[in-house]
């Protein structure tokens, strides 16, 4: 990537806002990382869309085993870019809401997306009646792709995204309530962690200039989490189900996760973003 | 609030440096609300002249044990996430620093607003101590293989074992460390807990938490004894509690003494027993008054022993050997038979009433957050509770959680820190 920052901004659709307004919130040395982040998100979304297509195809074909197999690996993409995906709250709700977001539970009409399909695939063990839900999910994911392509990435959302991802982990992954039917939480866990790490990596030079010890501490905690997650990787590149995670490992994840959540909550401040 | 109080309140606000706006506001409250001239907001903060009440964190013993019980209490049990002694020491030192600040109060450090604030802000920019005490105790599990503390474990500290009437929920039991928060208001306790959670994200994990309260009542008339607060069974609770001002009694009943058979480091500590005791209140409220009173052994209205007229009367069981007045299995008779031998089983109770929502059956989930302290856990709580096994009151009680902990000795001065004597006892080179 050796284009000039300005050319990149134009190419990436980052310049919807007037340059002056943009420059006021993002010092020039943040422009590079933010455009790199958009490339990352775009790539993740490409992977997400193609995997979602395969996943929904399997659902519609009535191929339960394949649909079950593709469920978790497909979601990882979404989990890694959640801070951006969540900017579109309507799509986030229809793609990723969980059963407890709905008063009427699995019967709620607006309970759609991955977790509704997860319920049928893993709890009811059927693909029956999922045709419309599969089509809806596929369309929503394509819609998300289009919307993100046209989005000016707000620097504070990008930098703040690292903390957002850790809050996701702290609030729903430790307890294993994200994927309550399939118990594939570790995929999502890894997706959140990778997405947060990516943001830290992109801003590493700026952060290290400010506070080397801070970056070292963040790296150490990422490493601690990844070491524990790695214990549960399976031969095929996937993860064991969450119920296999030992109590002492679950506990050992909490400290690094909560500390990362605290530390990454200062990223915006460290980079001087409003 | 009388006029003098209001002037004092105003003076305090000025002293707290709230500036011109604060003075103007305080001034406006000087006019009587009944005169209808002064504006009033429903959402104005309730007044208290006790927000500056504070206890000295330092001392031979920790506070929050013989300290008079304020209206609000909270017991929080934690898993310790530290993996080595160095981190355990950092945990104790950080706890020490936070507790010392929270109990003293003062301005909160301000940071660049681009950063998350250092403090939740619940008590405003100047933290008020509000009578806060935070009492640190450690569970049996802290003495496992992780930190090399096994040789220093207090002799009577065990993992709580269920009693026959218990229905313990694993997620509400035990823990490596407990913090007991007591303050005038629930918000002060919550502020303190959030401060500690924020400052120790890598070292502490909340395991369970129970809040409770006791109803304040008008001060006793001069010349009449103070009365105990009522529990959710409607009875005065704590009538037979030993006098916490009696130093000698507290040394016998509450504090581990130097030269006892406990490890030397544990001197001036105490055993803490915590029980979350659900009360089946609908059923209790459908029980005839005379039955309630004979089950407890006290008169509901006054708190007096059966046949007595006031709460502080000591029942004379020698004159009632067959339980004609106070049944042999009445709660107070089993708990404290008032014999010479059972003096060894006295405990210092510090309970709070709790209320947690409703059960699936639509019954109220409430009861007693029972906390007691004693120098000897076996002779104290365990013996008393064992005597109570099978008591008629059990029909109305379901203990669902709790744990046993050892309350650490107090912190002597600025060079000391909470837990230091325990660390020193297992690794003499640790210094303050």
Q: How would you describe this structure to a colleague?
A:
- The complex is a heterodimer of chains A (274) and B (432).
- Chain A has 274 residues and is mainly α.
- Chain A has helices spanning 5-11, 19-25, 28-61, 64-80, 82-85, 89-96, 114-124, 131-149, 155-173, 185-202, 204-210, 212-230, 247-264, 267-270.
- In chain A, helix 3 (28-61) runs antiparallel to helix 8 (131-149) and helix 9 (155-173) packs antiparallel against helix 13 (247-264).
- In chain B, a hairpin with a 5-residue loop joins strand 9 (352-358) and strand 10.
- Residues 1-7 and 9-33 of chain B have low confidence and may be disordered.
- The chains are: A mainly alpha (274), B alpha+beta (432).
The computed structural class of chain A is mainly alpha
Estimated radius of gyration of chain B: 23 Å
Structural class per helix/strand content of chain B? Answer: alpha+beta
Overall mean confidence score, pLDDT of chain A: 90
Number of helices of chain B: 10
**Helical content of chain B, roughly?**
10-25%
In one word, what is the shape of chain B? Answer: globular
Short description:
The complex is a heterodimer of chains A (274) and B (432). With 274 residues, chain A is mostly helical. Chain A contains 14 helices and no strands.
């Amino acid at each position: 990537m050796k284009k000039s920052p300005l050319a990149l901004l134009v190419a990436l659709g980052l310049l919807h806002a007037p340059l002056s307004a943009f420059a006021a919130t993002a010092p020039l040395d943040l422009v590079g990382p933010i455009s790199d982040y958009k490339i990352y998100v775009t790539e993740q979304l490409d992977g997400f869309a193609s995997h979602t297509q395969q996943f929904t195809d399997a659902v519609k074909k009535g191929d339960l085993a394949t649909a079950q197999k593709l469920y978790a690996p497909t979601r990882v993409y979404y989990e890694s870019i959640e801070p951006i995906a969540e900017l579109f709250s309507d799509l986030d709700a229809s793609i990723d809401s969980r059963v407890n977001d709905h008063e009427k539970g699995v019967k709620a009409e607006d309970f759609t997306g991955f977790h509704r399909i997860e319920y049928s695939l893993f709890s009811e063990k059927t693909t029956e009646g999922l045709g419309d839900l599969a089509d809806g999910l596929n369309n929503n994911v394509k819609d998300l792709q289009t919307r993100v392509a046209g989005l000016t990435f707000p620097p504070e959302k990008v930098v703040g995204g690292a903390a957002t991802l850790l809050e996701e982990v702290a609030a729903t992954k430790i307890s294993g309530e994200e994927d309550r039917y399939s118990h594939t939480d570790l995929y999502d866990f890894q997706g959140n962690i990778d997405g947060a790490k990516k943001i830290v990596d992109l801003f590493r030079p700026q952060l290290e200039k400010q506070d080397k010890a801070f970056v070292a501490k963040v790296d150490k905690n990422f490493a601690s989490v990844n070491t524990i997650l790695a214990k549960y990787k399976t031969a095929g590149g996937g993860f064991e189900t969450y119920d296999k995670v030992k109590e002492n490992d679950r506990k050992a994840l909490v400290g690094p996760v909560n500390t990362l959540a605290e530390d990454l909550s200062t990223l915006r401040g460290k980079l001087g973003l409003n | 609030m009388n006029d003098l109080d209001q002037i004092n309140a105003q003076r305090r606000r000025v002293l707290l440096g709230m500036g011109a706006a604060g003075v103007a506001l305080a001034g406006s409250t000087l006019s009587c609300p009944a005169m209808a001239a002064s504006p009033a907001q429903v959402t104005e903060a309730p007044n208290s002249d006790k927000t500056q009440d504070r206890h000295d964190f330092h001392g031979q013993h920790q506070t929050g044990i013989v300290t008079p019980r304020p209206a609000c209490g909270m017991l929080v049990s934690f898993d310790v996430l530290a993996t080595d002694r160095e981190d355990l020491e950092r945990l104790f030192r950080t706890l020490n620093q936070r507790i010392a600040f929270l109990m003293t109060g003062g301005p909160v450090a301000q940071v660049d607003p681009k950063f998350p604030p250092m403090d939740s802000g619940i008590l405003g920019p100047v933290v008020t101590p509000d009578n806060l005490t935070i009492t640190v105790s450690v569970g049996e599990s802290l003495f496992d293989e992780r930190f090399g503390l096994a040789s220093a474990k207090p002799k009577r500290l065990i993992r709580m074992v269920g009693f026959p009437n218990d229905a313990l929920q694993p997620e509400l039991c035990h823990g490596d460390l407990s913090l007991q928060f007591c303050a005038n208001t629930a918000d002060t306790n919550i502020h303190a807990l959030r401060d500690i959670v924020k400052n120790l994200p890598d070292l502490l994990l909340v395991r369970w938490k129970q809040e409770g309260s006791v109803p304040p009542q008008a001060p006793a008339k001069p010349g009449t004894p103070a009365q105990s607060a009522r529990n959710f069974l409607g009875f005065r609770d704590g009538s037979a509690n030993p006098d916490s001002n009696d130093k000698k009694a507290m040394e016998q009943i509450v504090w581990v003494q130097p030269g006892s058979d406990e490890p030397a480091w544990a001197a001036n500590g105490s055993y803490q027993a915590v029980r979350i005791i659900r009360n089946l209140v609908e059923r209790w409220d459908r029980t005839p008054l005379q039955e309630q009173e004979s089950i407890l052994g006290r008169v509901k209205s006054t708190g007096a022993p059966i046949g007595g007229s006031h709460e502080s009367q000591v029942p004379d069981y020698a004159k009632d050997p067959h339980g004609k007045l106070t049944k042999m299995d009445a709660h107070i008779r089993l708990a404290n038979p008032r014999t010479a031998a059972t003096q060894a089983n006295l405990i210092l109770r510090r309970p709070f009433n709790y209320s947690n929502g409703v059960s699936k059956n639509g019954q109220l989930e409430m009861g007693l957050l029972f906390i007691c302290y004693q120098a000897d856990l076996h002779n104290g709580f365990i013996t008393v509770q064992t005597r109570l096994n099978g008591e008629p009151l059990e029909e109305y009680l379901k203990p669902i959680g709790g744990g046993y902990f050892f309350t650490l000795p107090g912190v002597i001065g600025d060079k000391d820190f909470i837990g230091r004597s325990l660390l020193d006892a297992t690794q003499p080179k640790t210094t303050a």
